[in-house]
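Standup notes, structure subgroup. Blocker cleared on the magnesium ion input:
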Amino acid sequence: MIRVKHLHKQFGETSILKDISTDFQQGKTNLIIGGSGSGKTVFLKCLLGLYSPDGGQIYYADRLLSDMDNNARKQLRQKIGMVFQGGALFDSMTVEENVMFPLRMFTDMSHQEMLHQVNEVLSRVNLNEANKKFPSEISGGMQKRVAIARAIVNNPRYLFCDEPNSGLDPKTAMVIDNLIMEITQEYNMTTIINTHDMNSVMEIGQNIVFLEHGCVAWEGDSTTIFNAEKQEVLDFVYSSNLFKKIRDIQRQK
Amino acid sequence: MKHFREIGAYFLMLGQVFRRPTKGSVLRELIFKEVEELILNSLGIVVFISFFVGGVVSIQTALNIDSPLIPDLLVGFATRQSVILEFAPTFISIVMAGKIGSFITSSIGSMRVTEQIDALEVMGINSLNYLVFPKIIALLFYPFVIGIAMFLGIFGGWVATVYGGFSSSAAFIEGIQSKFIPFHLVYAFIKSFVFAFILATVPSFKGYYMTGGALEVGKASTTAFVWTSVIIILANYVITILLLS
Ligand SMILES: Nc1ncnc2c1ncn2[C@@H]1O[C@H](COP(=O)(O)OP(=O)(O)OP(=O)(O)O)[C@@H](O)[C@H]1O
Ligand SMILES: [Mg+2]
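Run returned:
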């Protein structure tokens, strides 16, 4: 579990995150939603310790992140998988080498064992034809899937995904969503996902945090979100024409 | 003020580079790759420049001393002195600041802007050690490059002198051998080591701490070249005062 208390982060004079308190549950897919520029990525990077917060506390299973020394942080980070919004693949390495990288760094597996594991996760993200290609030679959606494979290859305890399925076709997006939920339950991970995709919200929204103006404007899950009392949340949900139409049809009945 | 802060940040970075080392087997591979990219891939240009600039140095010396009172062996002597003392260690290093330096800055800088460095950090890897330490080790071979430049510079001088008809081969070789002070070689190689360290770390610093996008990566490579050359020239000055005067 990850617990956040009164998190505050500013760049220069502008406060991006003002006062955020929430819990992210273990074994569940926790979603952070909100409009573009609402601070989702900044929030995630604070949780990871890539940005140091200007106030508040972050606890990983009751251990305060800011109290951890270098060694403890290193230990923790080896248990973290992260999918960056842009993929952040190492462009000097092939797809296979990218996915193998965490294994090479932190395990004593033989090359055969690593290769086996790499191929297994690559097939889980539906990507078996690109092992020897470089990131610049594959499509954006494929890069995303490689990034996901790299994040989960070493069975992390904590999984962070910054818009894992932006740039994917709806069918692959669904596969990825389901994969993330599956492994979250299978390995009892704490998974946090940034998204503004309503399909993901419906599919895997077991715990949803809605960010607006640097605050948590609403919390709930995929069933309660459609009846949320906050107008901003409803605006967000019904910004898609499809959902608007469904709502109208339901109202006519 | 800004420069003082940068100098401080530079030394803090060096502290991080030597801490929390990367796993040995991975590190070894990284070092091999850097040796190839920084050292082996630079040899071509070094060979080319050394040979021809060595030739020009000797031709100019020969042209300026057509007085019969000055012995012919001066051409070889002057070529040797300028190649060993300045041309090979310093001039080549400035060229390398352009070649190796901008390569290092742009490769680390583009890793910064595409969040690859963040990805390393998130995995619990000391990204400074991972990225910079192998470059420093690889550039321990840099004095070999300078050695090659010295040899080829003098060889280029010999070719230009003899085939240009400025003096005889025997006189040139006698010039090379006359009044040789071994400490000059020591001085040149000490310089090379210092320049190698500057070449590895200053462009890394500029790339690692850059912000922005692809455009800024280009700008950072240019400033890295300027700063690396300036620091090399200053270090050259200081080392020369300390060792030769
Ligand atoms: N390093 C930074 N320095 C200054 N401001 C920043 C920095 N990173 C983000 N911001 C600002 O913080 C705000 C939130 O950015 P963030 O990237 O978290 O948005 P987001 O919710 O992830 O949006 P999107 O859905 O488009 O990815 C933006 O206004 C942005 O300009
Ligand atoms: Mg974002």
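Discussed briefly. Chain B has one domain: 23-244.
Next: hand off to the docking folks.
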